[in-house]
Structures are given as C-alpha cells and as structure tokens.
Amino acid sequence: MSQRVTGNHHSPESPRRREPLLNPVIAESQPEVASAIARFGGLDAVMASAYGVDPESGIQNIRPNRPFTRRKFLQQVTIAAALTVATNCANPDRKEADLSTGIPLEKTHLKIGFIPITCATPIIMSQPLGFYQKYGLNVELVKMENWQQVRDSAIAGELDAYHLLSPMPIAMTLGLGSQPFPIKLASIENINGQAIVLALKHQDKVKEAKDFRGLTIGIPFRYSMHNLLLRYYLASNNINPDREINIKQVPPSQAIELLKAGELDGFLMPDGNAQQAVYEKIGFIYLLTKDLWDGHPCCSFAASKPWIDKHPSTFRALNKAIIDGCNYARNPGNRREIAQVIAAPEYLNQPQSVLEAVLTGTFDDGLGNIRTVSDRIDFDPYPWKSFSYWITSQFARWGMVEAQNISHEAIADEVFLTGLARQLAKQLGQTPPTIILRDEQLKFGLFDPSEPDAYRQAQIQKHGF
Questions:
Q1: 3-state secondary structure of 288
Q2: C-alpha span between 332 and 143 (Å, rounded)
Q3: DSSP string spanning 168-222?
Q4: 147 burial type by CB count under 10 A (0-12 exposed, 13-18 middle, 19+ buried)
Q5: Running DSSP on this structure, what letter comes out for residue 404?
Q6: Nearest Cα residue to 232 out of 442, 389, 377, 378
Q7: 191: which strand partners?
Q8: Phi and psi torsions of 416, nearest 5°
Q9: What single-letter DSSP state applies at residue 460?
C-alpha cells in the first residue's frame, strides 16, 4: 500500500511546517506565554487545542512568508497561550490534574455516552482497567440504546464526550439528519470489527452478492460504515442497494431478536452481534468487513468543538486515555482480560466466550468452521484523513449530500484531529504515522484520496449507481 502527502499537506519534517522563528519570537516578546506553551506540550499542542489547527495538515490560508498574516498568526498563538495560562493556572492550588503530566484539568468528572457493542471496547475497558484514573479523570459511562439517542444527547449538551460511528462526526458537522453541530473526531476506536450475518435458513441459498436480491438487511444507522460498506459490496456486484434489497435501520440491541423473528434476513452489525447470532444458533457469518476493506474505520471517540474549547486540558487527557487504551487493546495478550471486564452487565452484558471469539479472532462461523483471523477486530486510534475522504465520497454517491457541496479536504481538516492524535501518541511513547493521507486498498479497487470525486464518478459510471 503506497502512502503519500497530497495537495497542501506536508510532512512534519518539512521546513515549511517547522519554522524555528516562531518560538523565539514568542519567547522574546512574551516569556510567560512561552512558559505556558511549554507546559501545555508545545506550540502545536496550543494550536490544536485552541483552534483545532492540525499543524501537519497545513494552516489554511496562511502563507508564512507574508508579514501581515505572520503577525496575525503570532497574535492568535499568543491569545491561545494566554487562554491556556488563564485556564490552567488561575487556581494553582487546586488538586485536579492529569496525573501523567501534572497539568491542571478544567473538569474531572465526565459523562461519556456509548452503545454496548465491541466497537466501544477502548471507551469501556478504560474504566475498569484504570486508564481514565491514570490521567486524573473520573468517568461515568452512560449506556444508550441507539445512535439517534447518542447524537441527540450530544447536541443537547448532556454528555462530555461520546462513542460515535466514524461517519457520524462528519454527518453531524454537516447537519445530515440533524441540525448542524460541530464535532471533532479525536481518535478511531476500532478498525475492522463488523460482519454480514445471514439467518441460517439462507445458508444454502445465499452464496454470492446477487443472491441478496429481495432480502431485508439490518444496519445500525444511516450514517455508518455498516451502511456504506454494505452498499459498497452490493453495488460493486451490480446490485442496487436502494431498489433490489431492503436496508432497514435497527438498533444493535434489537438485531438478534429481529433475526429470530424473521423480520430480518440478515444484518451488517458489529462483530459482537455477529458472534451472538452464531452463539444462539440463529445465523452464520457470511462475510467479515475486513475482507471488504482491511483496516477500515468503524467507531470513533469524539467531542464537540464548544466543549473542547472550554476544556482543552481535560480533552487532551481524555483523548490520551483512549489512545493509551487502544494501544493496550492492540496487544493480543490482553484480549482475554479485556473480554472478561467488558462482558459485565453494566457494559456489554454478553457471554465472555462470545467476546473472546471476537477479540481473539478464533471463532465459529455458524457453519461448523472454526476460523482464526487475528485482526478480525483491531484497535488503531490514528485517524487517517483518507478515511474521511472515502466517507464523504460515499455520502455524495448515495445522495446523502450534494456532490457539488462537498470539499473533501476542508471537511477532513475541520473534523479529524489527526495532528493532535499524533502528538498525544508520541507523548505516550508510541510511533504514529508521520503523514495524514494514504491510498486505501478496498476489495474492488484502490481509493486514491487525491481524486475522491473521480473515484465516485468511476463507480457510478461502471455500475450505474
């Protein structure tokens, strides 16, 4: 798989992205501000937290060689640092702090909404395994029924942060399905981790995509990778997902019962639901979404821009806890322990054996086969902006947004906090990627993020939809 930097994006090693003049200028004119910047983790960290600027993806509309814009930029950085001083140092005697850095936190008692599925593993396990406490946070996990409830609670300000399907921050920011609400995708919770499951009655009838004609297939939400990948699979095999099958939106918690009742012929849901269908002997695993796009994003950790602006240090500590938890979950040696803790009634409320089958990748497919796919689900928190480009190309393809209104680069830069995720991972001793875009290899072709509209148009031209 090739990797690239496209358009105005530059490697962090590029001289244009690392100007040595900035810090000395601030240090000479505002030494107390320079000190605050250092405490906060550096100039890039201030920029990312105060403005959502991703230093690795470029500062939009600012050319460093123009004196006026340079001065404006320095003024903005100074203001951001001053706000950091006011926020973090107004009460130097208070006890609440990120325990890993000692930086004071604006808020330590948090509510995070989640759907009880295996995709939420990092958010869930970080409570019983102590990752939130490690960063000075006391988190209440709020279990929710469906994605509409999470979205509406987020917009209403009832939550501090949330577990969201990876397309949802884009959809919410654009106002698709709800009023526009600015959401930042801080990190990816899981990659892969979904499957198409069919009722056992179809095991001798459905052998390939054309056999899906006339079936009713459940998905968890319109703005989900589940919906987009199901459409991608069917359309790539010349099946019109809007005319030749019935795609039905159902909460993950109801998928098993609806499959039992015959109201669904199958579903594309998180792997916990898929394995539960096998466990209850009502369905079989037809296809892992890993086989459609190995490394695709599934769910994400997110917070609103207003909340981040008000709680920059808390947000960094919280995101660091999630990234740290993801790194722990990536280790196969930790998967059984994780399955044990997230199986509890207050979390997923599923048999531990079901969750072990998902997390370890050794599983019964419902047809008498024991399969081993070690990365059936995995936990790589890095939010590649090429994920966003593919998602918005498919939003346009399926009429969820007008194609002429899509600026793939601007949306990715607005929603994905890729640079900040990299900074936090480095602070944790990890080695995240140094670029933000890569070619994505899917089952039926390569996605080049430098040409998302050409990709969409080629799909439509080839298949007619």
A1: strand
A2: 26
A3: HHHHHHHTSSSS---EEEEEE--EE-EEEEEEGGGTTT--SGGGGTT-EEEES-S
A4: buried
A5: G
A6: 442
A7: 297, 378
A8: -90, 120
A9: H
Map out the domains of the chain with their CATH numbers.
8-89 (no CATH), 109-190+297-347+379-449 (3.40.190.10)
Would you state the pLDDT for residue 62? 31
Higher-confidence position of 53 and 440: 440
* Residue 76 pLDDT greater than 90, yes or no: no
Q: Quick one: three-class SS letters along 389-454?
A: HHHHHHHHHCCCCCHHHCCHHHHHHHHECHHHHHHHHHHCCCCCCCCCEECEEECCEEECCCCHHH
Q: 35 burial class (0-12, 13-18, 19+ CB within 10 angstroms)?
A: middle
- What is the pLDDT, as a whole number, of residue 78? 47
Q: How many CA atoms lie within 13 A of 409 on its CB side?
A: 13
pLDDT of residue 43: 58
Q: What is the pLDDT of residue 38?
A: 53
Per 3-state DSSP, the chain is made up of helix, strand and coil in percentages (nearest 5) of: 45, 15, 40
Tokens of 68: 């006026």
Sheet of 138-143: strands edge to edge?
A: 138-143, 109-114, 161-165, 299-304, 183-188
Strands (E) in 1-158, as ranges, are 3-4, 109-114, 138-143
d(C-alpha 418, C-alpha 406), whole Å: 20
Residue whose token pair is 């002997």: 281
Contact 420, 319 (CB under 8 A): yes
Instruction: Count other Cβ atoms within 10 Å, centred on residue 298.
Output: 25
Q: Which two tokens stand for residue 96?
A: 């609440």
Lowest mean per-residue pLDDT among 79-83, 292-296, 352-356, 452-456 = 79-83
Q: How far apart are the first and last CA of the chain?
A: 27
CA separation for the pair 139, 110 (Å, rounded): 5
Instruction: Give the tens place of pLDDT for each residue, 27-65.
Output: 433 444 555 555 555 555 555 544 444 444 443 333 333
Q: For 444, phi and psi rounded to 5 degrees?
A: -110, 20
**For the whole model, what pTM was predicted?**
0.83
pLDDT at 69 over 80: no
What gap in Å lies between CA 227 and CA 233, rounded to an integer? 10
Lowest mean pLDDT among 19-33, 134-148, 387-401, 440-454: 19-33
| CA atoms of 224 and 454, how far apart (whole Å) | 22
Please report the pLDDT score of residue 97 as a whole number. 84
Distant-in-sequence, close-in-space partners of 443: CB < 8 Å, separation ≥ 6: 233, 236, 291, 292, 293
Length of the chain: 465
- pLDDT tens-place string over residues 186-219: 999 999 999 999 999 999 999 999 999 999 999 9
pLDDT confidence band for 8 (50 / 70 / 90): very low
